[in-house]
Amino acid sequence: MADSPTYVQRIIDRLTTELDDCEPDLIRFYALLVLTEGVNTTLEHVHDAWAIWRDQTRPDHPSIVLFDKLDKRTQELDRPYQEAIVRVAQWWWDGAGEGAR
Question: Among 14, 31, 78, 91, who pairs with 46 as Cys (CB 3.0-4.6 Å)?
Answer without folding.
Answer: 78
